[in-house]
Design a protein that fits this description.
By secondary structure, the chain is α+β, with helices and mostly antiparallel strands. Helices cover 37% and strands 16% of the residues. It has a single domain, classed as Muramoyl-pentapeptide Carboxypeptidase, domain 2 (2-Layer Sandwich), CATH 3.30.1380.10.
């Protein structure tokens, strides 16, 4: 069983309580350790990400605490290897189901796939 370290816990501050429930459930049920890369984000940070091409919007769910980016850890280091994100995805989806929260994964998007990104759906959480 895994648990969040202090860095991940600090990055979870400010996210929507329902999204926090999902992450808390996922970390104790996963067989793939993961870390939180980013939760709540400022508009200044969002603008920098847009300029760098790391995002395509200024309407990110991160701005309201409705999104979180996570990454699997392999030997204690962040992995950007897509097969591990695909292995982690059902764990997060099951955790959301367990706590009764609807969630969307950036890896399921048709374009601009975003493996680390998880968000509460706009239709259910209009902000």
């Amino acid at each position: 069983m895994f648990s969040f370290g202090s860095r991940s816990l600090s990055r979870l501050k400010g996210i929507h309580p329902d999204l926090r429930k999902v992450m808390d459930r996922a970390i104790i049920t996963t067989d793939v350790d993961f870390t939180v890369l980013e939760g709540l984000r400022s508009i200044e940070r969002q603008r920098k990400l847009l300029t760098s091409g790391a995002t395509r919007t200024l309407r990110s769910r991160h701005l309201t605490g409705h999104a979180v980016d996570i990454a699997p850890l392999v030997d204690g280091k962040v992995s950007w290897d897509w097969p591990i994100y695909y292995r982690l995805s059902p764990v997060i989806k099951k955790a959301a189901q367990d706590v009764g929260v609807k969630i969307e994964w950036g890896g399921d998007w048709r374009s601009f796939k975003d493996g680390p990104h998880w968000q509460l759906p706009w239709r259910d959480y209009p902000a």
